[in-house]
């Protein structure tokens, strides 16, 4: 299993996971849900206590990935398989994104 912290304006909003079976989950932190001033990170992932589950990387996160020749260069330089969307997201969405959301690798003990 791989985990990533999802930050909104540098504040941790939730956790994105890729499970060993390849499926993905996203869950907001209870503190984020409980604070009425904190927005959803996406219209497709509204604030709720439920765990979002998907067979594929959620479209919101998938749309953060580079495409075309940019994707090829990033994958080659970082030795990432072009179909490893989670790895690509961890590599590219940690500091250079459009918008307020960034994605950072989470440690296993978190």
Structural features, described:
It contains 4 helices and 5 strands; from the N terminus they run E-E-E-H-E-H-H-H-E. By secondary structure, the chain is of the alpha+beta class. It has one domain (2-105). A hairpin with a 2-residue loop joins strand 1 and strand 2 (11-18). It starts with a strand and ends in a 5-residue tail after the last strand. Residues 5-103 form the HipA N-terminal subdomain domain.
Shape: globular
Structural class by SSE content: alpha+beta
Integer count of domains: 1
Work out the helicity level: 25-40%
Radius of gyration: 14 Å
**Mean pLDDT metric:** 92
Unreliable spans: none
Strand order of the largest sheet: 4-3-2-1-5
Distance between the termini: 13 Å
Number of strands: 5
Hey, roughly how much beta strand do the residues contain?
25-35%
Number of helices: 4
Helix and strand element order: EEEHEHHHE
Sheet of most strands: 5 strands, antiparallel
Layout: helices, strands, pairs:
Blueprint: E1 2-8, E2 11-18, E3 24-28, H1 30-34, E4 52-54, H2 59-62, H3 68-78, H4 85-92, E5 101-105
Antiparallel strand pairs: 1-2, 1-5, 2-3, 3-4
Protein name: Serine/threonine-protein kinase HipA
Keywords: Kinase, Transferase
Pfam families: Couple_hipA
Please sum up the structure shown.
25% of the residues lie in helices and 25% in strands.
């Amino acid at each position: 299993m791989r985990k990533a912290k999802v930050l909104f304006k540098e504040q941790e909003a939730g956790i994105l996971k890729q499970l060993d079976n390849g499926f993905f989950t996203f869950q907001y932190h209870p503190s984020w849900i409980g604070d009425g001033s904190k927005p959803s990170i996406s219209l497709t992932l509204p604030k709720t206590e439920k765990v979002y589950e998907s067979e594929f990387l959620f479209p919101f996160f998938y749309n953060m990935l580079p495409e075309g020749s940019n994707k090829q260069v990033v994958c080659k330089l970082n030795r990432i398989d072009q179909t490893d969307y989670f790895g690509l997201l961890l590599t590219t969405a940690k500091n250079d994104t459009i918008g307020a959301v960034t994605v950072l690798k989470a440690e296993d003990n978190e």
